[in-house]
Give the backbone structure.
Amino acid sequence: MADVRSYIRINPLDLDNNKAIGVSIPFDGPAVFNSTFSTKDQLKSNLLNILLTEPGERVFNPNFGVGLRTYLFENFTDIESLQSRIRNQIQRYAPQTDLVDVRINKDNNNHQLNVSIFYRVLADNTVDALQVNFSPDSSVTTGGGTTPSSPSVGSVSSGGSGGY
């Protein structure tokens, strides 16, 4: 007789809730940086870093980054090409995720760009979402707080797990 058990996989880094794993984005903490204490939160920050970094911005890694800011004032944006770039960058630099869907909405008249990424965390198979909204007069938001920022940064909202 077969015994069916479901196992919960836990990343060893998540076992100590008092030890920071990485740095979260945006840098708006009391001492400039906010720390992340779970691999899921750090993965979300890593994805945000991939989306916001301009190609050529990283020293010794010129191919890193999608560079979403450059698409904000473009007259014509090939959505399929941008989706493919996002998929390739996440596949290359965040292999601990399985990309489920990438949705892009661009409003040329108001210079707005909305990017939604739905992904599965391979460590525990949970589905999560990340949404980045760019507009010329926006602010950065993660979770509940809002901080003023430069117009080119946009707003970021991290979604919860579950369906989309």
Remarks:
- The helical segments are 39-52, 79-93.
- The first strand starts at residue 22 and ends at 29.
- The radius of gyration is 17 Å.
